[in-house]
Amino acid sequence: MQTNLTEKMSTKEKILQVSINLFSQKGYSGVSVREITREVGIKESSLYNHFKNKEEILESIFSIFREEFSKLVPPFEFLDEIISKSTVEDFLLRGYENFRTHINHPVNEKFWRILYIEHYREPLAREIFLNDIIKGTIDFLESAFEKFIQLGKMKAYPTKLLASEYQYPLFSMHAEYNMLRFDGKDTSEIEQKMKDHIQFFLEHVTETKN
């Protein structure tokens, strides 16, 4: 089955798939064009029919990652409806489960490894990490928490503080979770820590456990 799927992929798709696999294992600098083309089964010259250079392959990978990550956050125009129909607990747990589903997808898991490896070397990786992941997530949570406060479902703390207090510990725990998975180690303890963090946060920001 996998062979048939691979055979149906275009050469450009195969180059991307192989590059994602190799970059996630060795880092961008540790992989040569020759190694990529050998894995794909094409001549080195053929790669340049699809990408200008290895850097453009990495840029394409980051573009795909950005698109996949953006799917984790619902459009802002739907936020009012989502908040009105949700408790704070439901909202946070749904976000947690959505992220787990996202990160546990084999390709997305590799995207995250590449991002972690490259974010000090590659400006685009830093931009994604700082703007899409950190700022984008915090901004979204600020808006959501503001709406929960307006509906009387959360205590009226500053929303930027609420978003930071909630999300920054999760950023750290997500990184630990990814590293444990990479090494094939048990993740149950860090998963429980994430759930405990959510419950701890809820106990401090809701009048009752909404």
TrEMBL record:
InterPro entries: Homeodomain-like_sf, HTH-type_Tx_Regulator, HTH_TetR. Pfam families: TetR_N. Residues 32-51 bind DNA. Keywords: DNA-binding, Repressor. Residues 9-69 form the HTH tetR-type domain. The keyword Repressor applies. PROSITE patterns: HTH_TETR_2. PANTHER family: ACREF/ENVCD OPERON REPRESSOR-RELATED, ACREF_ENVCD OPERON REPRESSOR-RELATED. This is TetR/AcrR family transcriptional regulator. It comes from Robertmurraya mangrovi.
